[in-house]
Write a structure and sequence with these properties.
Elements lengths: L3 E7 L16 E2 L2 E2 H10 L5 E6 L4 H10 L6 E6 L4 H14 L4 E6 L7 H14 L1 E7 L6 E2 L5 E3 L7 E10 H14 L8 H9 L4 E4 L10 H13 L1
Helix pairs in contact: 3-5, 5-6
């Protein structure tokens, strides 16, 4: 049976939240944001979950989230790195130790990913080798120069907002990240699909997700999250 492993990233500090508490541990309706992100995959058809967090937070995550909520699919909690790509690579190394066939890389600060999105990604990655969740943009997008003068108006019909999970054949993701880390050519890398395209030579397929799959980044997102939970 093919093994799907979710790698949930929780090593960020969330500076834009303006809080001493990292955003992934802030409460929404009485539970940490990270709990909802893990719970979505706990209830999905993935086989295992790996959490990547700050070295000083490992014990907290194990006792106050994994043990407290009895999250049975979490098989490892590992220390992240200085940058997102470092954390992803450490998660991939952990997934390699349990013989993953496919990986779903997800931001711990996206607590509202739904089961349809997870299922669609798991099904599509078998044929595409690389797919990511996202939604079409709803607003007109402007390209500006450093002085904020508009220099381009891209066609909105071709633009999508990338989300997570971003899902890949494991060997493709692992080898692409390994090559990038060893080459130190990390400038401009902002998501996993970019790594796979640049170092694996594979373009990802976009899987339509939900506009509810927001990333909790600023205080207003906490209030939006509370409203989303109350309407579920």
């Amino acid at each position: 049976m093919e093994k799907y492993v979710a790698i949930i990233l929780s090593a960020g500090r969330g500076k834009r939240m303006g809080s001493d508490v990292p955003k992934q541990y802030m409460d929404i309706n009485g539970n940490p944001i990270l709990y909802y992100s893990i719970k979505a995959f706990e209830e999905s058809k993935v086989h295992s979950i790996i959490i990547v967090t700050g070295s000083s937070d490992i014990d907290y995550v194990k006792t106050e989230i994994v043990d407290r909520y009895e999250l049975k699919k979490v098989v490892d909690v590992v220390s992240g790195g200085d940058e997102r790509y470092d954390s992803v690579y450490r998660g991939l190394e952990a997934a390699n130790r349990i013989d993953a066939d496919y990986v779903l890389i997800h931001d711990g600060a996206r607590p509202f990913v739904d089961q349809d999105t997870i299922i669609n990604c798991m099904e599509n990655v078998r044929t595409s080798r690389a797919c990511i969740a996202g939604v079409p943009v709803k607003d007109t997008i402007k390209v500006v120069e450093s002085n904020n003068v508009i220099v381009d108006n891209p066609d909105r019909s071709t633009l999508w907002m990338a989300q997570t999970p971003q899902c890949f054949e494991f060997s493709l993701a692992y080898n692409s990240y390994k090559e990038m880390i060893e080459s130190e050519k990390t400038k401009g890398i902002t998501d996993d699909a970019m790594v796979i395209e640049k170092f694996g030579g594979i373009k990802s397929v976009m899987i339509e997700s939900s506009y509810n799959n927001i990333k909790v980044t600023t205080p207003i997102d906490i209030r939006i999250g509370e409203q989303l939970l109350n309407n579920l």
